[in-house]
Write a structure and sequence with these properties.
mainly alpha; two-stranded antiparallel sheet; globular; 2 strands; single chain
Length: 116
Amino acid sequence: MATGRIRRRQLAERLDALPPPVAGDPLCPLCDRPIPPAQQDAHHLVPRSQGGTATALVHRICHRQVHALFSEQELARDYASAEALRAHPDMARFLAWVRTKPPAFMERTRRSARRR
């Protein structure tokens, strides 16, 4: 049990050190949080390998989670919009969790077990 308390304290210390959001930062279409310049990634709604050109600016952690959960074929076929991505149960669970974090929050992303 002590490990959990220590981990929570370390995470709280890291979160306190993050820079505050700046007014005018674009909003992530997935998690609806402001995106600091250091965390901005352009996500191709349809992967370039599948012929896509349109992009959306998203948080780096959200972008990594999208690619951890879905293959390029799945993104092109079924998840070519922010609404479709938010509707997937695994992505919805992730977004509910990440919405509780500050905008500059970043953590390691693991590949989904179904994609391994």
